[in-house]
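Section handout 9: paired folding examples.
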Amino acid sequence: MEPNPSERVIHVAEIDPRYRHTILSRLFEHLAPDQSLQIVVDHDPRRLRLQFEAKHGSRCAWSYLEKGPDVWRVRLRLLPDRSPELA
């Protein structure tokens, strides 16, 4: 699966395990609405998905592009904030 032209692809194995989730979370937080990044891992990143759901709620669109058995690709897209603005 090819990334979007402006989509950053992160090969998680290249990140020190102690910092992976923190780095991925920060990269996600710096996306503009409707931008995405793609992560490539060697397992189903379920724990990461739970963390993102807890922290970002419905603003994180999580899409599996490839589901193993050796490579998992996930697209994370920051959705626009749909909450009503306070007057």
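Moving on to protein 2 of 2.
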Amino acid sequence: MLSTVPFRAVLAVVAAAASVLALDACSKRIEPPGDKGVCYNVTFKPNGELVYHKLVNTPNLETCAANLEAMRIKFLRMGGSADEILGAYQANFIFVQKTGIFSGTTLDGPRYPALVRTGDGRLAIPGAMPQPPQQ
């Protein structure tokens, strides 16, 4: 039995899907610099462009995240209101938030926990805190 959908309608849907995929492939993903060992604080210009400010040289992402957290706390103690800070380290964005520190390879992509808050507010590597036995 032949389909009741006209061939032109199917062709139009396929063409629209192909054009959406082509436009998505052309869109530029925002990725951080990959300089080895350099920790950046990232800010935004009014036009939305990113500005990378070199903060320190660090051996790993966790140390960079700790420096960004220290900067966030100092700004809050001076009367600032920024609860979140954006950073970058070796081709990874670092998202410093009240709930913890997350990392991702793109600005708008998935984020993964790098450090989590303990009960008293300190930062720890996920899984490093002892868990009560499950019953």
